[in-house]
Design brief:
The complex is a heterodimer of chains A (164) and B (291). By secondary structure, chain A is α+β, with helices and mostly antiparallel strands. Chain A has 5 helices and 5 strands. Helices cover 37% and strands 15% of the residues of chain A. In chain A, strands 2-1-5-3-4 form a 5-stranded mixed β-sheet, with helices on one face. Chain B is α+β, with helices and mostly antiparallel strands. Chain B is globular and about 60 Å long. Classes of the chains: A alpha+beta (164), B alpha+beta (291).
Chain lengths: 164, 291
């Protein structure tokens, strides 16, 4: 069995591990690094529950092998809160009740983060497109879209405060 | 979990080709991974080892050389969808890339992988065969360029040799003034595998269509051009009557190809719908997809 020496940044922290190269990025995050916020749903890229941010792009961590993330930066849901303080996305989802069973939530929040990084004032249509790879079977999406709209305005307020 | 006895991540194309040549067919190239990785995880696909192409430089680039567009095989669907060059010169391909899977899949999946995977419903392949695109295949023995349509030889089958890698896709920019477009019929907008997809390129001179290309996917084993449908447009003046005539021709073609398959009843009807939608958009909207 071959081993692969994997180096990547996870939530800003450098990681070096010798792993079985057949492991998916999802397996390394959950089973080795114990970052269990990232969920496995369908295991074939249909549901988006395993979404993580890889070098500023949203990807399904079940669709790539961990070595493909070698030398790159990964952000998971655990990387969002800072010193125990929720980030605007998490705060907004809580406020509007965009979370029911919670299984899709990490992927949804990361999808929102990528969207707002590229497009700080998204329309409802932009939001729908940005979360089109993430399934939710509880909320009917309305609260999630609302949560992302609130996150956008929270971020704008924060940016305004820091500029002032 | 797939049991891989070997895994390589070469930093140069030559090293990648040497690895493939030496392995005697045991190693498989890995591009984006979106099809291979889940298939291996579920045990549907076995590979002894992989040559991961993700660190190869120079094959993730879109460029133009004279009237030819060149796309590195590891270019992702997102890169193609958002490329100003592809949008301006081959909008049908940008539209096809935008129709693939979901944002997450488009950020990983590659155009070379879409060809090598040889799915009958591959969205960008329908656009590529309509453009008469060629793939460049490299091996230690040298390189060859083959029409994408000739590289495909059945559902999931290609003529790519085990020691070869697709490194580039190239096609001639359609004649100036051409209009191009792509349409996909899926069960829903995101994440659906195409039930059918259609790509069209045409050029009008003195009110008559002087150049026409039509490609259909998810009808036969691989997407391909349909010359009968191209001929039904050539020499004609764009009009509502022509749209209807084309829709009926498309129905006849699909009926002929599918014969008595169970999906035929649905697809023969459905092709008329996508044909009408796409041609109406291209005939009526003067700014849409003009080269």
């Amino acid at each position: 069995m071959a081993q692969f020496h994997l180096e990547m940044k996870v939530n800003g922290k450098p990681i070096a591990l010798d792993i079985d190269p057949g492991l998916r990025l999802l397996d390394v995050l959950r089973d080795i690094l114990h970052l269990t916020g990232t969920k496995e749903g369908c295991g074939e890229g249909e549901c988006g529950a395993c979404s993580v941010i890889l070098d500023d792009e949203l990807v399904d961590s079940c669709l790539i092998l961990a070595p493909q993330a070698h030398g790159r930066g990964v952000i998971t849901i655990e990387g969002l809160a800072l010193n125990g303080e929720l980030d605007p996305y998490q705060q907004a989802f809580l406020e509007v009740g965009a979370v029911q069973c919670g299984y899709c939530t990490p992927g949804m929040i990361l999808a929102a983060r990528v969207l707002l990084n590229h497009n700080p004032k998204p329309s409802k249509q932009d939001i729908a497109k940005a979360i089109s790879g993430n399934l939710c079977r509880c909320t009917g999406y309305a609260k999630i879209v609302q949560g992302i709209e609130i996150a956008a305005s929270l971020k704008e307020t924060k940016a305004g405060v820091s500029r002032a | 979990m797939p049991d891989l006895s070997e895994y390589y991540q070469p930093q140069s194309l030559t090293t990648a080709l040497e690895l493939l040549a030496k392995s005697g067919g045991k190693l498989r190239p890995l591009a984006g991974g979106t099809d291979i990785v889940p298939a291996m995880s579920k045990g549907e696909l076995k590979a002894d080892g992989l040559v991961d192409l993700s660190k190869l430089p120079d094959i993730q680039r879109i460029s133009v050389d004279g009237n030819e567009v060149k796309i590195g095989s590891l270019t992702t669907f997102t890169q193609i969808e958002t490329s100003p060059l592809i949008r301006a010169k081959a909008s049908l391909l940008a539209e096809a890339a935008a129709a693939v899977g979901s944002p997450q899949i488009r950020n990983l999946g590659t155009i070379g992988g879409n060809i090598a995977n040889a799915s009958p419903a591959a969205d960008t392949v329908t656009a590529l065969v309509t453009l008469d695109a060629k793939a460049r295949l490299d091996s230690l023995k040298g390189s060859r360029r083959v029409l994408v349509s000739e590289l495909l030889c059945g559902a999931g089958k290609t003529n790519i040799h085990p020691q070869e890698i697709i490194t580039e896709i190239n096609f001639k920019i359609p004649p100036p003034g051409s209009k191009t477009g792509f349409i996909k019929l899926g069960r829903r907008k995101a994440l659906a595998i195409a039930r059918m997809n259609l790509a069209i390129i045409f050029n009008v001179k003195e009110e008559r269509i002087s150049f026409a290309r039509v490609g259909l996917g998810a009808v036969g084993p691989n997407p391909r051009r349909y010359v009968v449908l191209e001929n039904s447009l050539l020499g004609q003046t764009p009009s509502e009557v022509l749209i209807e005539k084309f829709a009926i021709e498309a129905e006849c073609e699909v009926t002929r190809v599918l014969g008595s398959r169970p999906s035929a009843v649905y697809k023969c009807e459905a092709v008329k719908g996508i044909a009408r939608d796409l041609l109406t958009k291209l005939f009526l909207d003067s700014g849409q997809g003009v080269v």
